[in-house]
Design goal:
five-stranded mixed beta sheet; about 30% helix
């Protein structure tokens, strides 16, 4: 099966799955606990992000790139939301992204953290099980992210670049889902 057909099949599997809540936890003693998606359907994605602790760097990036407004619109999105510690792992590169000449790079990074549609970790996990392996989707930045299972942990990677674990409590809003990540998805320097 070619990659276009696989991507279409994976997208169809994700879209066809009901939004059922299934609870799973990380390994004993693991700092990561993937909890059931919290339903905050009375607020928009922008409101959900505004109420979340530890994602202020992402909120600032959305404002700087002028993408924050789409999160309050009628379209549905899934926001892969690196926490503040994830941005800190980038070191000086994170601070450099706020400079005006780096705005196109910041925009590309933020767009690769936005997916069309309303995807919860539960539906992603179900699609992985139905597919018998990883599933890929195209981001708003036209990059490809791949969701996979690493033991009990749900992971997402950007091409051959960074891999992140889904951590914390995902939040479903009236126009999408916010899924917290422990790493910023950036392309490989070799790619």
């Amino acid at each position: 099966m070619n990659s276009i057909a696989k991507n279409a099949l994976a997208a169809a599997a994700l879209a066809a799955l009901p939004l059922v809540a299934a609870c799973s936890e990380g390994a004993e003693g693991d700092a990561q606990t993937l909890s059931e998606t919290r339903d905050e359907s009375t607020q928009s994605l922008g409101g959900a992000l505004g109420a979340m602790n530890d994602v202020s760097t992402l909120r600032n990036a959305l404002t700087e790139t002028e993408l924050a407004g789409i999160l309050d619109g009628p379209a549905s999105y899934t926001v892969l939301a690196p926490n503040d510690a994830a941005f800190e792992k980038l070191g000086e590169a994170s601070a450099d992204l706020s400079e005006e000449e780096q705005k196109p790079i910041l925009l590309a990074i933020v767009r690769d953290h936005l997916l069309p549609g309303h995807l919860t970790p539960e539906t992603i996990r179900s699609a992985i099980e139905a597919q018998g392996g990883s599933v890929s989707m195209t981001t708003l930045g036209e990059g490809n992210v791949t969701f996979a299972m690493d033991g009990e942990n749900l992971t997402v990677s950007l091409g051959d670049g960074a891999q992140a674990r889904i951590i914390g409590e995902p939040v479903a809003s009236n126009n999408g889902v916010v899924i917290p990540l422990d790493t910023v998805l950036v392309p490989s320097e070799n790619g």
